């Protein structure tokens, strides 16, 4: 089940990357590259940080084909994308949770400490979006809008707690997805955010 969700997630993330590239008037290569980086960048950064070689997508060329084709396909259907906004929000939330759980599992197999496992999950979940926004010359949205990175953090903690308590893998996945999806969509609906830090020296001079 997690594999199918992962494929859906990288497709949705690739399309979001293509749309971001389109807003910056990039050519076809730029669109395809940003789509690829958005979808697979989080896992790549995670593998490099954990020393997990070879990097995952190098062993699964299908992931490259899926993300690039999804990016190019977005160019064709871009005029209709606004009608699919709600669906994209759900798919993006599912992708965040799937990436987080996968990142945790990779670090667990490498026998890292709990703190590193959580950070591996968060990195996998959010870093593709960070790289997308940096390539498109934007402040990373995952760090400044509705709860996103914090959802990844809480999902990682819940997943590890349920695993520690001996909850079966399937039930753990359902609980983690249910919790993460509900929290993320609620944050979008009611615009939940963390406190914002604004540093303006003139305010205190």
UniProtKB/TrEMBL annotation:
Belongs to the UPF0126 family. Its main location: membrane. Pfam families: Gly_transporter. The keyword Transmembrane helix applies. It is found in: Cell membrane. This is Trimeric intracellular cation channel family protein. Keywords: Cell membrane, Membrane, Transmembrane, Transmembrane helix. It comes from Advenella mandrilli. The chain crosses the membrane at residues 6-22, 29-50, 62-80, 87-108, 114-135, 147-165, 171-187. Residues 4-78, 90-163 form the Glycine transporter domain. It is a multi-pass membrane protein. It comes from the Bacteria. InterPro entries: Gly_transporter.
